[in-house]
Design a protein that fits this description.
The structure is a single chain. The chain is α+β, with helices and mostly antiparallel strands. It folds into two domains: 1-86, no CATH class; 88-130, no CATH class. 29% of the residues lie in helices and 22% in strands. It contains four helices and six strands. The protein starts with a helix and ends with a strand.
């Protein structure tokens, strides 16, 4: 879902208002800028011939990276799949139902749903893991 196109809000703001706040995730944030310091965050490092370097994250790929949380907040997010506060059980079921792919190279697939903020389904996509 293209949050900015659908809502006019930037992804970090939309996530805060529509996911984190309703679920009570008070220690979760989207890191939109790599220069933003995340308080008390553990970082991954790599080592080369000059020493250790911050390995960074995928902050530019919202959702795939750049979201920082705590174990407590993450459990609230996971709990939403069993007892939905954000969205409803129909959406959760559709998002967690394995999809089918016509690709002969595909071994596993997963469903992905795109929906407008009004709640109407606009398309269904499948991603192959080949």
């Amino acid at each position: 879902m293209d949050v900015k196109l659908s809502s006019g809000q930037k992804f970090p703001q939309w996530m805060e208002e529509n996911i984190f706040e309703p679920l009570g995730m008070t220690s979760t944030m989207v890191r939109a800028d790599p220069l933003t310091i995340v308080p008390e965050a553990a970082q991954g490092y790599t080592m080369d011939s000059t020493g250790y370097k911050d390995s960074g994250d995928l902050y530019a790929s919202y959702g795939a990276g750049g979201i920082y949380t705590t174990v407590e907040d993450f459990s609230k997010w996971l709990g939403n799949f069993g007892n939905p506060v954000v969205n409803d059980s129909t959406l959760i079921s559709r998002l967690t139902t394995p999809g089918r792919s016509s690709s002969p190279r595909s071994r596993r697939t997963c469903s992905g749903e795109m929906f407008s903020l009004s709640g109407r389904w606009s398309s269904t996509g499948t991603t192959a893991d080949g």
